[in-house]
Design goal:
Chain A: Belongs to the DCC1 family. Chain A: It holds the Pfam family Dcc1. Chain A: It comes from Eruca vesicaria subsp. sativa. The complex is a heterodimer. Chain A is built from 14 helices and 19 strands. Chain A is α+β, with helices and mostly antiparallel strands. In chain A, helix 7 crosses helix 9 and helix 8 packs across helix 9. The relative contact order of chain B is 0.30. The chains are: A alpha+beta, B mainly beta.
């Protein structure tokens, strides 16, 4: 049998010709090398890593997650009871030894490797952080009178959030969008609901005064009218984004009736449970002319309960619920032990769990009961 | 914190490492005193197109080369002191990639001196 001769290291093993043999030794620096880790990665992830698009995120007391541009992965260590002799190429910086070229050397016995499991981004913390200091009218007034640096508020830049929230950039952006957050002076803020109400009502007012059509609002006109009423221009534009959608073809904004009506429904209900008839009356009064408030618009935002012959309605927003399935179902069943599908579905619609369909989610977290084959199924906690 | 996973090279130039995987544990003889660094473990032979043997002491293992369905990246964890601050920052760098391994799954065949075993 011939010696493979001239090269050592991993190459000698990988290229070992048929009929050839090579001795394998412990490296001169063989040791535990706990700073050397093996990570299993599919080809997509490998490309992402080589393009510098992968980071590990989390606080020291949390399990780190690995984030690509758009996905989040939990990192699991999988042990291997086999002996994995790890062999670097010869001339590996940091592991040089004499006569490297002719040796095949084992640098470490790898106890296993890290595996990645795709997970949902952990966005609950995002809401908690931003709700520490929602932007309100008072702050805006104060800002006009004093200079920066006097704020004693908990404020977070994009970089602060990326360092603390375990989500990929894309998922973080989507999370901010779903909170209707806005970046002001480099800090991401949510707007206090009553302040947002002031801005919206002024926007609606000005539209009516100027005979603007809700389906074709001009951003510049809207913003300048609100600035004239002493609202910051970024907030004016933001209001359009929160309650409307862009009509790109004509470069205008259309107010979405569902979003506007929902806002007023929430204003009417406050923290109370109202009789349905009273609510509908009050609600209709607040809705701007030209828009119609339909109860179906409030799916996933309000719940009704029957007390005797009365039906009461109250705020119960899907956006106030945890984003992870186990916690979401726990809160839902604590609130109400039994649900009909038509009531439950709006509160599950936004749940996206890798590798699990809605059927799978229901199977995993709920118990389904049907009194008769043609009856409505009732869901309760598992 | 946010740790970027860095690599000093592109995907194509990344140095290729490999693994020889055996069931069980390689041990030194009980009479051996000292450190294992630089000690020979055994001899790897590519005996046939799809067969490899690994002879360790008096045992011969047979196995084959396996291409990993998902490559393994070799990462090195570095603790760096960022300039100007006393804080240590962790960095992860890709130092290699493993695309194949030689896997020995069979029971070791004892070799007796003078015979090549059955």
């Amino acid at each position: 049998m011939e010696e493979s001769g001239s090269s050592g290291g991993a190459q000698a093993v990988i290229n070992l010709g048929i009929g050839s043999s090579v001795p394998i030794s412990y490296h001169a620096s063989f040791g535990p090398h706990e700073d050397l880790l093996l990570l299993e990665a599919d080809e997509n992830l490998v490309s992402d890593i080589f393009s510098g698009r992968v980071t590990l995120r989390g606080l020291p007391d949390e399990d780190a997650v690995l984030c690509t541009k758009s996905k989040t992965y939990a990192i699991k260590f999988v042990g291997n009871s086999n002996s994995m002799l790890l062999i670097p190429p010869s001339n590996t910086p940091g592991f040089l030894q004499d006569d490297d070229e002719s040796h095949v050397s084992v640098i470490k016995l790898a106890p296993g490797n890290m595996e990645l499991v795709e997970v949902s981004p952990k966005l609950d913390k995002l809401k908690k952080l931003l709700m520490e200091s929602p932007l309100n009218a008072g702050e805006v007034e104060d800002a006009m009178m004093m200079d920066d640096g006097e704020k004693n508020l908990a404020l977070y830049t994009w970089s602060d959030l990326a360092n603390t929230i375990q989500a990929s950039d894309e998922e973080l952006r989507k999370g901010l969008e779903s909170l209707s957050a806005i970046e002001i002076d480099g800090y991401w803020r949510v707007i206090d609901e009553s302040y947002l109400d002031m801005i919206l009502r002024m926007l609606l007012n000005n539209s009516v005064l100027n005979s603007w059509c809700f389906d074709g609002l001009d951003e510049e006109d809207v913003v300048s009218s609100l600035v004239a009423d002493e609202f910051p221009s970024e907030l004016a534009g933001h209001c359009l984004r929160v309650f409307g959608s862009e009509v790109k073809e004509i470069n205008k904004w259309k107010l979405e009736p569902r979003l506007v009506c929902l806002h007023f429904a929430r204003q009417v209900l406050g923290e109370e449970k109202m009789r349905l008839e009273s609510f509908m009356e009050e609600w209709k009064k607040k809705i701007p002319e030209g828009m119609e408030g339909k109860f179906e618009m409030l799916e996933g935002e309000v719940l009704t309960e029957r007390i005797g012959i009365e039906t009461r309605v109250y705020k119960f927003s899907v956006r106030s619920l945890p984003s992870t399935p186990a916690e979401r179902f726990a809160v839902l069943f604590k609130h109400r032990p039994k649900w009909e599908w038509k009531d439950l579905e709006p509160y599950l619609r936004d749940l996206h769990v890798p590798r699990l369909s809605m059927e799978g989610l229901l199977l995993k977290y709920t118990r389904r009961a049907q009194s008769r084959p043609d009856a409505e199924p009732i869901f309760s906690a598992r | 914190m946010e740790i970027r996973v860095k690599c000093g090279c592109g995907e194509d130039e990344c140095s290729e490492w490999t693994i020889v995987e055996l069931q069980g544990v390689v041990e030194t003889q009980s009479s051996f005193q000292g450190s294992v660094q630089s000690l020979e473990i055994g001899r790897l032979c590519h005996s046939d197109s799809s067969q490899y043997t690994f002879t360790v002491g008096y045992h011969e293992l047979t196995g084959s080369k396996v291409t990993l369905k998902k490559p393994l990246l070799v990462l090195k964890k570095l603790q760096k002191c960022t300039d100007g601050s006393s804080q240590k920052e962790t960095e992860l760098e890709v130092v290699g990639i493993i695309r194949s391994k030689i896997l020995f799954k069979t029971r070791p065949k004892p070799l007796f001196s003078g015979t090549s075993g059955k």
